[in-house]
Amino acid sequence: MNKAGYTTDVPEDRFVLLDELSSRDRPLRVMLVGGTDSGKTTLLTFLANGLIERGLRVAIVDSDVGQKGILPPATVSLAFVDGPFSSPSELRGHAHYFIGTTTPGQYVGEMAVGVKRLTDIAAEKADVVLIDTTGFVTGAGVELKRLKAELVRPDLIVLLERAGEMEYLRKVLAPYGEVVMLSVSPAAREHSRRERREVRREKWRAYFSNSRTVEVDLTKVIPGGTELFRGRPLTEEERELLSTLFKWLVVAGWKGEHYTVVKVDAEGFSRQYVRPALHTVDFERLSNLLVGFIDGEGFCMGVGILKWINFSGMKAQVLTPLSEEEVENAAELRFGRIQVFENGEELGLLRREEL
């Protein structure tokens, strides 16, 4: 299931834009910006196919983490286009940058860095780099788009708007690249939250269709993206004290700048404690958590679903389609902020500060 597919039944200004891109100096960096269901991916697919037909080398940077075309989900991905395609989901990723969630509001920095790094790689080989972005264009989304544009310095920023709602964003982005305004196509269709969730469900299911459970040695692979494992392990006396005070089952804990505890509530009542001094993580929040296997250069080799952590043995059980060799080459296991089953069912999102 895909929201967008290749079509040449587009407004005339899309053909004008295609002609313009074909005549520009290369490499050319083009960032597509618009709200949810504004037709960014349809436009990207049209432009990429048209440029390929004209003999140009095309790369796509897919940073729409909420509605990813290029797998895996919850990453920023780069693909080189070898020939005509109907949907970005047909493309094979060349490189990825882990974000770990489908809602990037708390990961503005990572989103911008991922787009920058992958665009730089793309520009070394492609004549035209097309950058797809999220429909997140209000609030923190404005800063996200600005940071991307400031880092990437696109030659062209294409804004899709319905009724002048992108005017403020145009002013924000104008210092960082030439801005072209296009109206949203009359053929663009709004999708319900349920439909978008179903699209994601199929992406998750496709990615994890040939997965297996691997054991990750956390003494050799750095656990990142979380406050867990930082500092010295708690002594038995400290664990007993915390258990007695708060009626928790303390699964694991560390003492660094503050105490960090993985716990299970033994009794359901409210606890009062100084949060800057004590950070707690509910053990159940680690179940089916998305994690990324990160290589020595900071790129994501693939993602997995955390099934279990043996804290005393420093071993993690992770479901992933990655090969044993790829898993062994990981330098970091980075914790994401979405819980998901391998069948594609999303269990919930975590706030950044929860882990």
From TrEMBL:
Keywords: ATP-binding, Kinase, Nucleotide-binding, Transferase. GO terms for molecular function: ATP binding; ATP-dependent polynucleotide 5'-hydroxyl-kinase activity. GO terms for biological process: RNA processing. Residues 26-203 form the AAA+ ATPase domain. InterPro entries: AAA+_ATPase, Clp1/Grc3, CLP1_P, P-loop_NTPase. Its EC number is 2.7.1.78. Its cofactor is a divalent metal cation. SUPFAM superfamilies: P-loop containing nucleoside triphosphate hydrolases. It catalyses: a 5'-end dephospho-ribonucleoside-RNA + ATP = a 5'-end 5'-phospho-ribonucleoside-RNA + ADP + H(+); a 5'-end dephospho-2'-deoxyribonucleoside-DNA + ATP = a 5'-end 5'-phospho-2'-deoxyribonucleoside-DNA + ADP + H(+). It holds the Pfam family CLP1_P. PANTHER family: CLEAVAGE/POLYADENYLATION FACTOR IA SUBUNIT CLP1P (PTHR12755), POLYNUCLEOTIDE 5'-HYDROXYL-KINASE NOL9 (PTHR12755:SF3). Polynucleotide kinase that can phosphorylate the 5'-hydroxyl groups of both single-stranded RNA (ssRNA) and single-stranded DNA (ssDNA). Exhibits a strong preference for ssRNA. This is polynucleotide 5'-hydroxyl-kinase. It comes from Thermococcus celericrescens.
